C-alpha cells in the first residue's frame, strides 16, 4: 500500500503540476510540500494544520480528501484532539489565527492622545472653576434686617460683595426663587437658588443687577429701604439698583 506522501506525489504528477505550481495553488511552502511527500508532517504546525494541508492538497489535485485523511490517520496515529480541532477539521470553525500584536507606535500614539485629552479636560475644568462665575468673596457684613421674618435667618454663606457703594438684600419670605446677581462691570456675585426663609445680601461699588426667577416669592431691600414688590408669583423679573436707589 502506498504511503500518503507517495499518494500525494503521484496525484500531483498525474495532474501535471510541479511542487512550485502546487505551492502556488495551496499557499503551502514548497519545502513543506516536499516534506509531506516524504511523509514528514513535523513542520505543518501541528495535527490540525497537517490535516488542513492534506484536505487543501486533495482539493487542488481533485483527489478524495476523506481517503487522504484516512491514510493520514493510519500512518500518523490518532491522538486525542480538542473540540476546537475537530470543528476546524469538519469546517465548522475556522482555523485559529495568530493573535495580532499591536504596534508599539500605535501604543505610543494612544498614550499621547490620552495625555492630551486629560490635559485639555484639566484646562477646561480649571477655567470653569476660576472664571467669573463667583468673583465676589463672602463678607461678614450680613445681619438680619428689620423686615426679616423670624424664619428668615441668614445662613453662613449669605453675603457677597464686589464693593460697598450699593447694598441689596433678597429675602425669600414666601417661596424659594432662582436668583442671578451681577455688578456694573458684569461680574457675577451669585447664581443659584435662594431657599424659602433665606436672606442673601449683595454689595457693589455702583450698581447691582438682579434677575429673579420667582419675583412674588421674595422681598427686596435696597440701601436699607424695603422696596415695593417687583413681580407676581412665578414671574421672571430683571431689576437694577444704584447708589441713589
Automatic annotation (TrEMBL):
Keyword Coiled coil included in the entry's annotation: no
Family annotation (SMART domains): HTH_XRE (SM00530)
CDD domains cross-referenced by the UniProt entry: HTH_XRE (cd00093)
PROSITE patterns: HTH_CROC1
Pfam families (alphabetical): HTH_25 (PF13413), RodZ_C (PF13464)
HTH cro/C1-type domain residues: 8-37
Keywords: Membrane, Transmembrane, Transmembrane helix
Transmembrane spans: 102-125
PANTHER family in the record: CYTOSKELETON PROTEIN RODZ, PTHR34475
A Gene Ontology molecular function term of the record: DNA binding
Protein name: Unannotated protein
Keyword Transmembrane carried by entry: yes
